[in-house]
Amino acid sequence: MEDQIKMVVNIFDTANEMSRQMVETQEYQDLKVAVEELMADEAAVALFRDFQKQQAEAQHKQMQGQQPSEDEIKAIQDMAKKVSAEASIMKLMEQEKRLDQMIQQINQNLTSPIQSLYNDLLKDPE
């Protein structure tokens, strides 16, 4: 039992160390710069916040099984056009995507032993 507790502590220590290391990656540093550049433009920040709010509301509706109205879809499309015309927001989104790709790769590495277990379980007996 003590070994199990020690193992849990070690895995969380490793996760904490990965968190510290992540802030040193180029992907994180590039995202940080993009956030700082966006924050320097009040109009772009307001647009970004509106866009995030609109997306969250649409997702919330979809999670409740509701479809957005035509007016809501048009508003989202109009907002997306405005956002895509704002260089600082597009840069932020691109950097966010790069960091997310790195995190997805790490997640694949972390979960590969679990995937292997299920692959073995789901094999057809020959």
Automatic annotation (TrEMBL):
Domain of life per record: Bacteria
UniProt xrefs under InterPro entries: Com_YlbF (IPR010368), YheA/YmcA-like_dom_sf (IPR023378)
Pfam families membership: Com_YlbF
Family recorded in the similarity comment: Belongs to the UPF0342 family.
Annotated protein name in UniProt: UPF0342 protein FC60_GL001789
Organism: Limosilactobacillus gastricus DSM 16045
